[in-house]
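Continuing from yesterday's entry. The apo prediction looked reasonable, so today I'm repeating it with nicotinamide-adenine-dinucleotide included to see how the binding region is handled. Same sequence as before; SMILES copied from the compound registry.
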Amino acid sequence: MIYREKIKGKLAIGQELLYLSMQDVIDTGITVDEIIDLTEKAMIAYSTKKAEMPAKIGLHPQPDSLMHAMPAYLPEEMACGIKWGSNFPTNRERFPELTPTNCQIIYNDHESGLPLAFLDATWITEVRTPAVTLVAAKYLANRDATTFGMFGCGIQGKAHVKMIEHVLPKLETIYVFDVFEKAMDALIEQCQPHVNAKIVKASSYEQVAKSCEVIASAIPIHHHPHPMVKTEWISKGQTLITCDCHSVYEDGVYKKADIYTVDSEEQHRLLETYGYYPWGLPTIYAETGLVAAGDKPGRTSSEQLIVSNNVGMAVEDIIIARKVFDHALEREIGLKLPLWNKTR
Ligand SMILES: NC(=O)c1ccc[n+]([C@@H]2O[C@H](COP(=O)([O-])OP(=O)(O)OC[C@H]3O[C@@H](n4cnc5c(N)ncnc54)[C@H](O)[C@@H]3O)[C@@H](O)[C@H]2O)c1
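Holo prediction written out below.
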């Protein structure tokens, strides 16, 4: 109730809501370190059953497009709301002025259910997704890795490359690969000033697969995957972290992995029923959040081949939405909009 009273001092709950544009969200000043910490907290809360989060349901208005409804409630954080997130890969060709991934959050008062804020979540998604990869890398990768690979040089590729040194501080070389040369050039131009490691444009999937100790991937998810990375290119000791399901690696890679983790077992079982894993889901060792919680060991030997497949969870968005909302109220950022236009 103390938290609610604090909100009521700044916002008339039930009569108005706070509208935050993407720029407002960024202007709250939430830091990358806060985002990584909150993301880890959310993954642990989910996997230790301290959060309510049903598997996301979706619509698919265009081929290979998705729109996901993602509600979550984290009681300990008093954070409650829903993200409505979309990925339309063909926006790049059909609507060049629009990005493929676009998301909004309705952030709710967990005491009354009323909306407190409507905020852009496109940037939140952009940064919390690599934060999940970072949490996975923290517990599953060889932390002294000197090489990192990135498949896909779009929004996610860039955000991953900018953030990865937070958990892999000894990186010397980052290999990036994309089917579009221009995307690789743009990533290098935008990211090189922010990272210490040298970013190298790879010439093939094979070069990245064979050169990197830790590899992340963020390419479009196709309803039926056509993996490009061959099983024999992948070796013991590597850590492969995907936020694009099984889009990149042949099924044999998952079969030979010593450990396979997912962010939400329920979520991935549901995706399997949608046909995203035509060769079946590999044996799940644990949820990534359970490893972060210390309930299951992470990497125990530098020789293990580890794959972590994280599709994104609403708990991550909603825990960050609370911090953004708190900062916005404190710093008087955003636009207050009326909720009702007459007293009922
Ligand atoms: N797991 C999550 O929480 C989460 C969150 C956001 C996005 N995603 C997923 O990440 C992926 C990328 O999202 P984005 O916003 O960066 O999209 P984007 O369109 O900005 O970037 C995708 C990049 O992949 C490249 N690409 C396309 N096909 C490729 C291929 N076969 N091999 C290599 N590169 C290829 C494109 O040229 C583009 O540069 C999508 O599948 C999206 O659904 C996952």
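Comparison notes:
- The chain has twelve helices and 15 strands.
- The pocket of nicotinamide-adenine-dinucleotide is lined by residues 87, 89, 92, 100-101, 125, 129, 151-157, 178-180, 183, 218-221, 243-244, 310-312 (CB under 6 Å).
Will overlay with the apo model tomorrow.
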